Amino acid sequence: MTNRVLVYHKVDVRSEIGITVVKPDQFRRQIEFLLSEGFQIGTLRDVYQNYPDGKRRVALTFDDGYENIYQYAYPILKELGITATVFLISGYLGKRNRWDANLGGIHFTHLSQQQVVELVQNGWEIGSHTVSHRCLSGMPVALIRMELRDSKQYLETTFGREVAYFSVPFGKTNRQILEIVREVGYRGVCGFFPFKYLNSPAPAEFIPRLAVYATESLSALKRKLGSGSELRYEVTKQNVINFCANATILVNSLR
Ligand SMILES: [Zn+2]
Fold first, then answer.
1. 232: CA distance to ligand 1 center in Å?
2. Which of 10, 61, 107, 205 sits between 20 and 30 A of 171, alpha carbons compared?
3. Does domain 4-254 correspond to CATH entry 3.20.20.370?
């Protein structure tokens, strides 16, 4: 049984036109479903370093570090005895997002330093999601290195924990990013699940993830953790959605 890694973005009662907001009651149903299916759920560190082999394991991750994770997801997970990994944008702690295309006019605030301290004290793991959430593809190497290194150093100094994992903004990784990930000292890098790794092994540091989108059913969730044609279906879906999400990058670059 290979490990599977899920990524959420926003858990909130508010809706936006995008597809990344999962409602709190839906989130609870999904997590309870995974538990009822016998999955062991935890942080990336738990799943990759601490859990014994032979279990059905799922790492739970959150990208962007929105405050709604603290408000809605954290209390549910705490009640269920589950911890998760949250990928923070080091330049945005406590600030409102400016980098998102802001569909629907809703502003989402990022976690404050104090909220992250509480998550860490309760067993959550923090990862880096760069300093600025700019798209790394096509960026000069020195700037990519700065985004990966400075965010890691800042988060480790601020929260006193190793930042072992990195998540690529907009999900797309490449050989150059992988090299810098190794050089800067991360244990792994999270990105979207490309087709090529359905049939061939991924580089050792690469952690393919599947996103959970708004209004997805429990059977969709189950497929993401399955194999063969079920997994292929979900990887295809994510690649189609990712293609559309590139519009966010375009919109941002035009502002
Ligand atoms: Zn992101």
1. 23
2. 107
3. yes
What pLDDT score does 136 carry?
Answer: 94
Question: Cα(54) to centroid of ligand 1, in Å?
Answer: 31
Q: Closest by alpha carbon to 141, among 164, 174, 172, 170?
A: 174
Please tell me the distance from the alpha carbon of residue 218 to that of residue 82, in angstroms, as a whole number.
19
Task: Please report which confidence band the pLDDT of residue 104 belongs to, taking 50, 70 and 90 as the band edges.
Answer: low
CA of 19 to the centre of ligand 1 (A): 13
CA 87 to ligand 1 centroid distance, Å: 8
Look at the pTM and tell me if it is higher than 0.85: yes
Instruction: Give the distance (Å) from ligand 1 centre to CA of residue 129.
Output: 7
What mean pLDDT comes out for the span 118-136? 96
Give the containing element (helix H, strand E) for 30. Answer: helix 24-36
Calculate how far, in angstroms, residue 133's C-alpha sits from the geometric centre of ligand 1: 6
pLDDT mean over 132-153: 95
Tell me the domain boundaries of the chain: 4-254
Q: Which residues lie at CB < 5 A from ion ligand 1?
A: 63-64, 169
Cβ count within 10 A of residue 129 = 26
What pLDDT, on the 0 to 100 scale, is given for residue 249? 57
How would you classify residue 117: left for phi > 0, otherwise alpha for psi between -120 and 50, otherwise beta? alpha
- Separation of CA 8 and ligand 1 centre (Å): 10
Query: pLDDT-based confidence at 49, cuts 50/70/90?
Result: confident
Whether the CB-CB separation of 190 and 61 falls below 8 Å is answered with yes
